[in-house]
Amino acid sequence: MGDMRTSPADPFDSPLETGLRALVVLEAMYPRACDLSEMTWYDHLVVNTADIADRDGGEGPRSLHPATPGRHDALNIRRQAVEASLMLMHRVHLVEVRHCEDGIRYASGETTPSFLDALQAPYMLRLKDRARWLASRFEGMDAADIAAVVDRHVGLWAVQFRSGEGDRP
Question: What InterPro entries does the database record attribute to this sequence (predicted)?
Answer without folding.
Answer: ABC-3C_MC2 (IPR046904)
